[in-house]
Design goal:
alpha+beta, single chain, about 90 residues
Length: about 90
Amino acid sequence: MRKKQFRGLPAAMLAGLAISQCQYSALTTAQGTFIDDLLIYRLGSSHFSCVSTLSNQDKDFEWIKENILGNTEIRNRSHDFVQLAIQGPRLWKS
């Protein structure tokens, strides 16, 4: 998706994201109401990947699809990828 064609994410945040970087962000309505949290990966100059919570992925995708501006292509590839988030205070302890 193109950075200036997506409502609900701050354009400045997307513009400042370098290729291969990831940003934790919030998906919001135009009024700023929180919808869900996302991880946004910048894959290229105008290509991004958004990762939402598994339990909300269908709802988030539908909201994003309905709020895309212009002729931006969006695809739900949730079933093509797996994300494993390992976290906690004992993560780095052997």
